[in-house]
Amino acid sequence: MSSISGIEPxxxxxxxxxxxxxxxxxxxxxxLASAIFAAFVALYGxxxxxxxxxIVQGGFGSSFAWQDTLSRAAPLVLVGLAVAIPAQAxxxxxxxxxALVLGGLAGxxxxxxxxxxxxxxxxxxxxxxxxxxxxxxxxxxxVLRQYRGINETISSLLxxxxxxxxxxxxxxxxxxxxxxLDKPSTHPIDPSYALPTLPGVGVHAGLxxxxxxxxxxxxxxxxxxxxxxxxxxxxxxxxxRMIGLAVNRWIIGASxxxxxxxxxxRCNRSGGRAGNSQLVTHRRLWV
Length: 287
Prior knowledge:
mainly alpha, about 0% strand, disordered C terminus
């Protein structure tokens, strides 16, 4: 019948939903990255299957490996939020290392005048200090984009170099512990300020903090009017202005809030390393 009338039959397959696409894209990205990595491993004359087996064994092959993986995942979750939240406003801010080190520096020094104080207020003070300084530093990228027309990807990357230079200047200068001879560092943080360990897991409570913040960010971005407004700004600044949204405030605010997570992640990591939390000038900040 269709061949006589010239009308093709309509496909009965259901359309791909946004939820299915949101699940499929990350999986495809991981598979593509793994395939590229395997190709480079093969070019070096190694067996990709063996290499992947070693990676899985090192990350999940024992209880210690699980603990180490989860401990490292805690700050990475917050760093991911620092990129994901500004992305909702259409910002591609990837140069967060400057905010990361300055947030860590703020968390390291803010409690020094209160040595011996109760742990919980000092832990909160460290997180707030790191979040504020990190948010301020990342907010500069949003300000430069909105008021000077500078690409936020480039400015955030260049601000990282400035932040690291400020970090080195302070830790090798006025904030240096005179007892640190081999490598310049700040005064050590009181070991009692370390985050408690989650029972039965052996991982510091920063993991729970990171997961709770990730869930809260998801709820706010997807199910509140603030999240909807932010997505409108990221979709079309012109439409956002037409409906009365203050685009500049939303974009700068998204930059600041996103980097709050990145700045606090370094304090999160420091609080989980009991008794040896000292900010040093090497690339691996916490020793």
